[in-house]
Amino acid sequence: MITAIKSLCKEMYIDARGKKALPAVSNGIVSAVTLIIAQTAFGTLIFSDALAQYTSQGVGLILFGNFIALLIMALISSFRGVIVGLSPVLVIFMATIANSVNTTDEALFVTVYAVLAFSAVIIGVCCLLIGHYRLAAYIRFIPYPVASGFVSGLGATVCIAAVSLMGVDLTRIGEIALMSTTGFWIWFPGLAYGTGLYLAIRKWRNPHILTTSVLLLIVGYNLILYLLDISIVEAGDRGFLLESTVQGRLWPPFTPEDFLRIDWSILFSQIHNILTLIMIAFIYIILNFSGLELAVNQELDWNKEFNATGISTVVSGLSGGTCSTIYIPPTLRSKILGATTRLTGLIAACVVLIAILYGGSLLAYFPTALIGGILIFAGLGLLEQGLQDIRKGLPWSELGIGIGIFLAILFIGLIEGVIIGLLVAFVLFGIKLSRIKLIETQFNLRDKRSNRSYSVSDLAILQEVGGRGVVYQLRGYIFFGNITSLIDQLKDSLAGLQTPDCLLLDCSAITGYDYSAVNSLSLFFRLASRKGVTIVLSAAPARLNYSLERNLTSKEFSNLEFKENLDQALEYCEDLLISNWKKTTEGMRDGKSKLLERASSDLERHLDRQVEFERLIDELEGWLTARDYQEGEIISEGSSEGEIKLLFAGGASVQDRARKRLSQLVPGDVITTLQGYGIPSSSIFADKSCQVMELSSSTLGLMEKQDPDLALKLYRYLTSRFLNS
Predict the structure, then answer these.
(1) Which tens digit of pLDDT belongs to each residue from 455-465?
(2) Which band of pLDDT confidence, cut at 50, 70 and 90, is reported for residue 538?
(3) Higher pLDDT, 519 or 680
């Protein structure tokens, strides 16, 4: 910990004295001012209607959460120069929760705070769990149309909320009351400012447009009120300014005694809304991580970012703040300006803190039209982002899903639209997952065999009956959505003209399964057992074995064969086929004579090689050293420069570090590891008692000088054996 702190301080000291200092100050201040303006608008929206009298305290809560998030993310995020803030996507849900709280006036504000703080803590804890257990890879993918529908629907909702905040009753949109003088000079400037700001920033992409326009609007609006001889108090009472809803104090928003007024029963009644807020927060956090990676063209450590977001959100929630997420535009600006340093976020945090401590009285001069305009600007940005994403060459089916979620949020309701979107996401996930082929490859034992070496006659048998051993290599997650297609394919192999003797399922690439999969496999295994087919499973998870044992009778389970890896399973099936063939052809001369005819040429070549090997050993007598090895003993490990070893009797096998057999050796084979074949950690073990003829490098060198013809003959033999293997 001390080392990490020293390293952090050293890093910031170097940045403060380097070229990144000035860009960090510039981007930090500009980003902070932009955030203060946006967060003030968001806080005003959340704490509106019945909570309007607590607007200043609510804005203080939002800004303080922003300060905490900026401070912590600046220190521990993996991306230097990151800027964070409360997202407009979350604002809508927080406003929905705040407006649905129904309690006494004294307990209202502090109860709403408790609900929002509790939500922030839960979101932070979930982020910490994801980061700690490195689960980011499992949740980072959200269906594109679902995310686009969410964003566009929420953008439209923000715009509607902004218009409502400016005093427009959308249920009475057609009435002439909408055009009253007072109402018109609130909603029309706000609508014009928000739309104009959106179009200006969209065209020129200059962050100074926002800060400059806000200052001009505040000064201009208040100047017009002064010229019209309308006092600040009167302007607040008539809704032109926020004066009537603020008390000049942003922090602290409450006193310790206020905690005694929290209505805890409300907290439990809001669980469904809190869960919805958590789900949306995760979706937006994931979208922001993905968007930042794309924008800065840099891969982020998602698990570390989830940890950083979790810590900042938990601390913010416990301190009285709310959840904050990454803001991509100012963060991208850090990279463009060369402000990729932790100083950028720290400077922004300091500016926000100054606003919290000394900016409360200024809030009274903010026009309501400004707050509404900022919200319209944010809503139009989300709306454009979502609709642009929907239009990006999506198939009609996915395009319809995105538009459907957008319309559901807009016309049915926010919570209902989100629930529909989540259900669609799960259904899409299930459909796409069910379409993934579980069977990666399919072959029989005539096409591919184990690494074991067989006699010529056994090889001929396998060539004859190898089609009766069917192998399926499975991959992916097996669940109720795709198990039916797998079982149908397995049943097809039993319904052919020739029922296989054994069926091998390689489970080494299976990522998981559900109970439906276990139940369906159990039913199939019963069917296979009734037809006399042996089922062999290789590399099956221990939990799958346990689940099958619970679903099958002891007799049915005993008919299953479990092997550690595919090579052992293939060997078991090969032995089974050879054994069955011998039992079937026992006493049948025709079958054995046909086998002898088929294997005669292979047998002749095998005998020729053995004769050649024995003659070579006779000629090398005096040069070779015989060495005996017991079963399981290591014959060769790593490379022995220049040394030659020949297996004279017994058997051996080349195995990797996990003791998986890579190949099997028979008398006459050259003993060598597979280091030259891309397997650096292979060793050779004695499968049974064996004898090895060894020729050291020094002896080989002496042979080359004294008997070069014999050395040449040895090299020719080694080359032919390598080529044959």
Answers:
(1) 777 777 887 78
(2) very high
(3) 519
The whole-angstrom separation of Cα 265 and Cα 107 is: 12
**pLDDT above 80 (res 555):** yes
CB contact at 8 A, 332 and 295: yes
Instruction: Give residue-wise pLDDT tens across range 577-587.
Output: 988 888 887 76
Task: Say which DSSP state 24 is in.
Answer: H
Q: Give me the CATH topology for the region 439-584.
A: Transcription Regulator spoIIAA (3.30.750)
Question: How far apart (Å, rounded) are the C-alpha atoms in residues 430 and 425?
Answer: 9
pLDDT surpasses 60 at 551:
yes
- The alpha carbon torsion through 633, 635, 637, 640 (nearest 10 deg) reads 160
Taking CA atoms, 658 is separated from 492, 507, 626, 654, 661, in Å, by: 35, 17, 29, 11, 9
Q: Look at strands 534-538 and 560-563 and give their pairing.
A: parallel
3-state DSSP of 30-90: HHHHHHHHHHHHHHHHHCCHHHHHHHHHHHHHHHHHHHHHHHHHHHHCCCCCCCEECCHHH
Nearest to 340 by CA among 584, 27, 62, 573: 27
Cβ contact 37:211 at 8 Å: yes
Query: So what's the pLDDT on residue 675?
Result: 45
Write out the DSSP string of 410-431.
III-HHHHHHHHHHHHHHHHHH
Give the whole-angstrom CA distance, residue 653 versus residue 686: 7
**Pairing verdict, β 683-686 and 652-655:** antiparallel
581-to-448, 461, 525, 561, 576 alpha-carbon distances in Å = 19, 7, 23, 20, 9
CB atoms within 10 A of CB 652: 27
Cβ 51 vs Cβ 306: under 8 Å: no
Give the pLDDT score at 676. Answer: 44
Q: What is the 3-state secondary structure (H, E, C) of 344-387?
A: HHHHHHHHHHHHHHHCCHHHHHCEHHHHHHHHHHHHHHHHHHHH
Minimal CA–CA distance to 143: which of 423, 379, 479? 423
* Rounded Cα distance, 34 and 38, in Å: 6
pLDDT digit string, tens, across residues 591-602: 555 555 555 565
Q: What is the DSSP string of 269-309?
A: HTHHHHHHHHHHHHHHHHHHHHHHHHHHT----HHHHHHHH
Distance of CA 6 to the CA centre of its chain: 33
Provide DSSP, 127-138: HHHHHHTT-HHH
* Residues 6+ positions from 658 with CB-CB distance below 8 Å: none
Helix and strand numbers (H, E) in the chain are: 27, 14
Q: Which residue is associated with the tokens 């929630």?
A: 317
Averaged confidence pLDDT in the chain: 82
From residue 472, alpha-carbon distances to 508, 549, 602, 723, 725 in Å are 11, 21, 30, 30, 26
Does pLDDT of 123 surpass 80? yes
More confident position, 401 or 340: 340
Q: How many CB atoms lie within 10 A of CB 559?
A: 16
| 330 closest CA partner among 291, 277, 370, 280 | 291
Q: Coil, strand or helix: which one is 648?
A: strand
Cα–Cα distance, 331 to 603 (Å, whole number): 73
List the chain domain ranges.
15-431, 439-584, 601-724
**Secondary structure element (H or E) that encloses residue 484, with its range:** helix 483-494
Q: 123 Cβ partners below 8 Å, 6+ apart?
A: 277, 278, 281, 282, 313, 317, 323
Q: Which fold has domain 601-724?
A: Jelly Rolls (2.60.120)
Measured CA distances, 402 to 86, 311, 381 (Å): 25, 33, 17
Q: What is the pLDDT of residue 240?
A: 84
Picking from 365, 373, 101, 113, the residue whose alpha carbon sits closest to that of residue 244 is: 365
Q: What is the pLDDT of residues 635-652, one digit of tens each?
A: 887 655 667 888 888 888
pLDDT number for residue 119: 92
Residue with tokens 């979790």: 310
